Records
---
Amino acid sequence: MSNDSRTQITRLLSPAELEAALRDIGAQRYHNRHPFHQLLHAGKLSKGQLQAWALNRFYYQSRIPMKDAGLMSRTSDPDLRREWIRRISDHDGAGPDTGGIERWLRLTSGLGLDTEYVMSETGILAATKFAVDAYVRYVREQSLLQAVASSLTELFAATLIQERVAAMLANYAYVDKKILSYFDARLTQAPQDSSFALAYCQKHAVTVAQQQDVLDALYFKCDVLWAQLDALHGAYVSPGHVPPGAFIPGTDNK
Amino acid sequence: MSNDSRTQITRLLSPAELEAALRDIGAQRYHNRHPFHQLLHAGKLSKGQLQAWALNRFYYQSRIPMKDAGLMSRTSDPDLRREWIRRISDHDGAGPDTGGIERWLRLTSGLGLDTEYVMSETGILAATKFAVDAYVRYVREQSLLQAVASSLTELFAATLIQERVAAMLANYAYVDKKILSYFDARLTQAPQDSSFALAYCQKHAVTVAQQQDVLDALYFKCDVLWAQLDALHGAYVSPGHVPPGAFIPGTDNK
């Protein structure tokens, strides 16, 4: 299979075949394969580059509950909403000092970034915003099935997170377990979320066209994640052209 | 003030003046003044008419969490989302047998309607759907301030509910407290919700135009509630023209 060929199905897949096709997409397209992540995990990023990564990823974190609320706003099924609402609570927490967004801010703060600067969203790459906003819009506008399916990158998240935490602790002296607490919670949340979403897609994609929609939604989401790392790589690694207005490592960014 | 004149402000109101202007709108336009509610509370509706009311109002209940999720999908402020998420939990509950929607189904069932028929949403008046869907869309598409402000009919809900519960228990032999449990919960939820929304609007409407938006949002929402009762009145009271496909009291509605 060449780099740009996508799976096109021509017959209805069994639930197990659908899962295999989804996992195959992950094996080819999930952002664990991106060069930026490989540099990150190999301990080859400067502190400024790590800051740029954590800063831009904050924008993604901040939009996830909006994306999930967008999905909930589309279904009149209380069962689906009751399942999905946990994702919002996981990110927002019960109060200002809990939840995934707050834990991500512990990472940006632990890496030396001013929290107010991070939350101001100035300094975020425009390409990050375009990719993330496209995801939020996709979930609002495509079919409910595609909206659910676009979350399926979580099938691959736990493995990546385990690898990342070990690599970051081993390779960056200024990184400790405390500032990586975001990832601890995701290790249990992501598999719970992805199990539900996978079962939902297996149950509700009952035509070839719907199964193709599920696959295409995962392709789309892989693109969303990949494009964010492309933008980071281009701005901060190679060629290292920081766009106007974006975060510049080692300055006060005023 | 004539029936159709709306408050148009020409200077910035104090928080207390804004609240007074909102309460004035409620006094003129809230649906407690609708003839259908007056018949309901006076014990003058037939069981079939009560069924039609509860059936159509189910559609409104079913869309409220979608409306609230739509609002949450529009804000990147975790504080606002953390406050608003309770409204969804209140309606959906923690499991299939809890929450406001389920309690509303106890009312429709207690009035003799088949729950499956109610949930199928066939038999709901088209005008009910148009009004409710317009509300969901309004919250998604207008400003966040207007979205919050459109919930402010809850300022007037507790009084109406107290009146309604007493009147229904007094005037309809087949109504008991158990099937009215939806309203018990709303007696504490509505004031909590409306206090927050009012304070939010007082804080965030800082220009004359924004304060006018807040007032207009409440006018809009009053129209949404009123139009639902107009439709019920026209179909089931006077002239009593049930539109094609809608619920017909006393038949099996297949």
---
Amino acid sequence: MAKDVGILAIDIYFPPTFVQQEALEAHDGASKGKYTIGLGQDCMAFCTEVEDVISMSLTVVTSLLEKYQIDPKQIGRLEVGSETVIDKSKSIKTFLMQIFEKCGNTDIEGVDSTNACYGGTAALFNCVNWVESSSWDGRYGLVVCTDSAVYAEGPARPTGGAAAIALLVGPDAPITFESKYRGSHMSHAYDFYKPNLASEYPVVDGKLSQTCYLMALDSCYKYLCSKYERIEGKQFSMSDADYFVFHSPYNKLVQKSFARLLYNDFLRNASSVDEVAKEKLGPFSTLSSDESYQSRDLEKVSQQVAKPLYDAKVQPTTLIPKQIGNTYTASLYSALASLIHSKHTKLAGKRVVLFSYGSGLTATMFSLKLNEGQNPFSLSNIATVMNVAAKLKSRTEFPPEKFVKVLKVNEHRYGAKDFVTSKDISLLASGTYYLTEVDSMYRRFYAQKVAEKSRCDNGSLTNGQ
Amino acid sequence: MAKDVGILAIDIYFPPTFVQQEALEAHDGASKGKYTIGLGQDCMAFCTEVEDVISMSLTVVTSLLEKYQIDPKQIGRLEVGSETVIDKSKSIKTFLMQIFEKCGNTDIEGVDSTNACYGGTAALFNCVNWVESSSWDGRYGLVVCTDSAVYAEGPARPTGGAAAIALLVGPDAPITFESKYRGSHMSHAYDFYKPNLASEYPVVDGKLSQTCYLMALDSCYKYLCSKYERIEGKQFSMSDADYFVFHSPYNKLVQKSFARLLYNDFLRNASSVDEVAKEKLGPFSTLSSDESYQSRDLEKVSQQVAKPLYDAKVQPTTLIPKQIGNTYTASLYSALASLIHSKHTKLAGKRVVLFSYGSGLTATMFSLKLNEGQNPFSLSNIATVMNVAAKLKSRTEFPPEKFVKVLKVNEHRYGAKDFVTSKDISLLASGTYYLTEVDSMYRRFYAQKVAEKSRCDNGSLTNGQ
């Protein structure tokens, strides 16, 4: 069996267009700090009419292959996690095949995985399992998480975002799976769903979704701890992981989640909870589960108690989600990317525990072990390739009025046919794919903004037959 | 690593309501034989307003667990293949969690896999890989293929169908994967897709889809042969497999596909093609690929030449697809179920080659090895449990007028909210789940038709939170 299977390489793409949460607060007539402190968000990325989940995934896959110098023929499996449905039958993966077909590689397994924000994690697990299975043919797996999160006008609108992340999977990786330390919690819930098929917007019960998230977190942590304890013969606590990476719809929920883990450790009488913390949490030891999810006091006290640990174990994972917003399937991996961006030289030997959540609901907590790796598959090279600081810096801010106009255009275009886009690519970086046209048969056409250095290469993608 | 991983158990469910293709021909004013001989179909199953892909999958999973006496706690992975979208975010898998939650099992990995009719195969491969991976926790995997295929009025309407199939996956199986003999062909095509999000009906180019199917078949067969030859050091031909099982949208395409494989063997100068066949196919040896897909003469001659082999290697796989129609993700496995139904006592030691196709497009040809197995996981018990003959016999025929009315009702109900169904379950067998209501928040409610013997058990499913 292949050894040390995991993530070899990462690239991230997000649109170069964003809105400031502070400006959006004012525009929406929300109280000052409602989005920036209440949600804990700084900015929100969004697709203009020339970008969508397909163009973003074409961009990030092309970029990853190029920057890590991977021959497209070396890819044996390609799968996509997304909850942004453009076609109900044809997978996003088949659009990405255009990149591989032109190199003569059509023997690539994998399709799209779907359940809300969890699809990317499902795709990643599938890819890792493939490399460990007897079906593996020695080539790389490639996982793409791509989503555009948009909400109808109202309280959920500031929790949108957009990004695509590509993860290369194979043996001898710098980011490996501790596959036995894993707990899932899956159940039937209606916290966030998309039953209105003609609309891009979800039906969402924000309060219920937060409770579902925290319940799933508790359950997954319980499973992970009990599996760890069965295998290692000792208790697991927060002290046993160096970093915690959460699915990050908005930063405030990440803060609450980490505090919730501390409360779990307190109830389990784990060594991670010191005497001062025990004393502060004492009054909450007899709450029922339901009461504990509703208690504002517990929320406040546990976050206060968890603050120093949060700063050490979670804060380094929060940059990108706070800057680009909720990116659904890409959210958890944009938090992981933030950690690598901010700490890459100090991560060798560290354990990172991740919590993936998708409404409806599906959730898994799992553990990764990091090592420096070898170029091009090293943590430091991943940080260099992702180039997060420069990408964030080169973005263009849209005032809220212009952002709302963009959303209106996209609303009308969603599910529509027979239109051409503005083809305005002035804000896109070289190499970015963009939507040019949807014809009368709903067929979608994309082109690539040609890089200065490779103008000879015709960037347009021909259509499937 | 777990050994002899594969399919341990199968159950199949299809609606008890069907229309005769012969009657539909007359109703549609089509020429006599257009659907029965031209398409090669006998009957078509369809869901009335009380059934859908969720109810069918609840029915088949409950039935499989009960009939093979599997404790729901023994399931560690559950995934669904489907292209019938009821919600764009919440997976069908989460609806199925209701069965497991009430037994206290929420630690079950897996979500939905999507790309047209291929999603079930993707889910099956994922499940097998999981059992072979380091993440396997010793429990069973369960794969569900569920689809309702309906088409707008017109030439594609008789190619509908409906069914759900459940496949239990684990080690020491009677149906094991020869995982190294596998070839995939995936590319970007618009042969059949569902871009009109508000409609249940696809956009389909029948002629293009057939050519895509045959091109993918050629490509997958080429890959499978070359992999076999690299490993075994000898040529692979049709003689090396006892049965060929095809994705079966309509039987005529299955006949054409098998003949196409023979034509491939002829071009490869394989031992499976005798002198008489060589002589008959001789005139077609210089056709270009494109010409060969268009040539009616080649189609006719190759089918004629292949007829005796078709009767032996394919005909035993055709019963259910001809009786219930195209069931998308369930189609290939309903053909496999037909083989086990008709030949179960004679299958030990046999090799079965399967071809899975999903428009858009994704396709894989793969190989299974069969052994009798041990009860309850034996081929003969699978045949007994599936009880195909009795299920087909107990169905109720609807005249075309009534069938069209049902489709009209379903058309209005698709994506709708705030309605109750007729709750008319007179035609459903005991144990069948059915849709009772979709509330004003689009939440769906199902109940189970209580079996005479277990009236004490309240069959209704409570809703997720």
